[in-house]
Design brief:
The chain is mainly alpha-helical. It has one domain: Orthogonal Bundle (Arc Repressor Mutant, subunit A), CATH 1.10.10. Helix content is about 65%, strand content about 5%.
Length: about 120
């Protein structure tokens, strides 16, 4: 996975469910989906779907209408291309994408914690 795609994954997806949500909405891009419908379609929980969808809206990958329903609508052609590449990468190497998502918060947390370690001199 190249650096641009890795950065996109690290900054846009807080969970594997966010990737699954994005890919589902890309396939069903012709309509808006309520959170309740997404919970049913993805067989997930309200909390997981809400967190994933809200993060994807902030990332510029989804839009929300006045009723709160979301749809796939990347804010730029660059985001569309990154989403295309993510879909291809996830299709051929899903475990690599999953590992990147799962490991990212831990490595950042470790770096932050290490900054406060007291060393003896």
């Amino acid at each position: 996975m190249d650096a641009d795609l890795a950065e996109f994954v690290e900054t846009s997806f807080g969970s594997v469910w966010a990737v699954e949500t994005l890919l589902f909405l890309r396939r069903e891009r012709e309509r808006s989906w309520t959170y309740e419908e997404l919970v049913q379609q993805l067989r997930s929980s309200d909390a997981v779907v809400t967190e994933a969808a809200e993060r994807l809206v902030v990332s510029g990958l989804l839009t929300a209408d006045e009723n709160g329903a979301v749809r796939y609508a990347p804010a730029s052609p660059d985001l569309e291309r990154l989403a295309d590449r993510l879909e291809a990468e996830y299709g051929k190497a899903p475990s690599a994408v999953r590992r990147m998502i799962v490991q990212t918060p831990l490595s950042k947390l470790r770096s932050f914690a290490d900054a406060f370690k007291v060393t003896r001199t």
